[in-house]
């Protein structure tokens, strides 16, 4: 009598893999729902933790760049509001990158036991950052009301810039997530990247303040276009499309996403063995 062996593989043909990704979407939602529940479980002030850190950062950057350095926001916007708009985009990006890059290690038991498209695990990391974004957004609206800022017509483009921030963070997160499985010390690199990114991105200052000679190098940071674009769409200040720098930032974002997915898929078969 012939014997058959069922083999569950982590990586499959691309066409079937993307079908599986859609077929297992409910698992992604369940993982995201669990992460949200754990994130806010047994907290004293709940969602305020989502705004405490960015608001403290806004105060610090206002003192450093406005009071000490004497910088001004584009369009005469109230400086704390100018910083908060940039911080909202950065916080969203940083939260997705941090959550996604550690997601496989946090779900090691699940990854090593059953088959499903592993790409669902870092994708499920979107849940907590999205909720934190919703919690922080009313503070931005309140500050706009206080400062007398009326949202411009280009507000409709704000979701597109947030989508670009998410795609960039996921692209980098996919790569770091795969590297974390094999080399556990990569998790210590992520906080350094995020800390450096706060000052390398136009959160506390306007892109127009960057000397022309450094604009090309400066726009290699994909968050430059995202932050400038969100400020333009929400506050109506600046022009993210001035010059050709935005094309560089956009190209880096797309390259990061494609490279992250490619590397993740190439190493996915080994996850269950080494995690």
Brief rundown of the structure:
This protein has helices at 14-23, 25-40, 49-68, 79-101, 103-106, 108-111, 120-124, 127-147, 158-182, 189-200, 215-218, 223-234, 245-267, 271-274.
Question: What does this 3D model show about the protein?
Answer:
With about 280 residues, this protein is mainly α. It has one domain. It contains 14 helices and no strands. The two termini are about 35 Å apart. The relative contact order is 0.15.
Spatial shape? globular
Number of separate helices: 14
**Oligomerization category of the chains in this entry:** single chain
Structural class: mainly alpha
* Major beta-sheet overview: none
Q: Would you spell out the secondary-structure blueprint of this structure?
A:
Blueprint: H1 14-23, H2 25-40, H3 49-68, H4 79-101, H5 103-106, H6 108-111, H7 120-124, H8 127-147, H9 158-182, H10 189-200, H11 215-218, H12 223-234, H13 245-267, H14 271-274
Helix pairs in contact: 3-4, 4-8, 4-9, 4-10, 4-12, 9-12, 9-13, 12-13
């Amino acid at each position: 009598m012939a014997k058959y062996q069922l083999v569950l593989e982590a990586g499959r043909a691309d066409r079937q893999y993307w079908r599986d990704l859609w077929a297992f979407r409910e698992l992604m939602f369940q993982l995201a729902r669990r992460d949200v529940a754990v994130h806010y479980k047994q907290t004293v002030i709940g969602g305020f933790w989502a705004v405490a850190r960015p608001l403290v950062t806004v105060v610090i950057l206002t003192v450093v760049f406005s009071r000490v350095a004497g910088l001004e926001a584009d369009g005469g916007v109230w400086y704390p509001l100018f910083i908060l708009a940039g911080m909202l985009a950065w916080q969203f990006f940083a939260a997705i990158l941090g959550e996604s890059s550690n997601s496989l290690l946090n779900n090691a038991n699940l990854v090593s036991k059953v088959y499903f498209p592993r790409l669902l695990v870092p994708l499920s990391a979107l849940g907590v950052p999205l909720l934190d974004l919703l919690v922080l957004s009313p503070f931005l609206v309140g500050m706009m009301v206080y400062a007398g800022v009326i949202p411009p017509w280009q507000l409709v483009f704000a979701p597109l810039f947030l989508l670009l921030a998410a795609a960039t963070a996921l692209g980098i997160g996919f790569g770091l997530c795969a590297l974390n499985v094999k080399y556990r010390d990569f998790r210590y690199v992520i906080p350094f990247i995020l800390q450096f990114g706060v000052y390398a991105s136009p959160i506390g200052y306007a892109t127009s303040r960057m000397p022309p000679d450094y604009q090309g190098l400066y726009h290699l940071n994909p968050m430059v276009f995202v932050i400038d674009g969100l400020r333009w769409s929400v506050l109506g200040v600046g022009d993210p499309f001035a010059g050709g720098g935005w094309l560089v930032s956009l190209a880096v974002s797309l390259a990061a996403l494609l490279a992250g997915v490619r590397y993740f898929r190439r190493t996915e078969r080994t996850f269950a063995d080494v995690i």
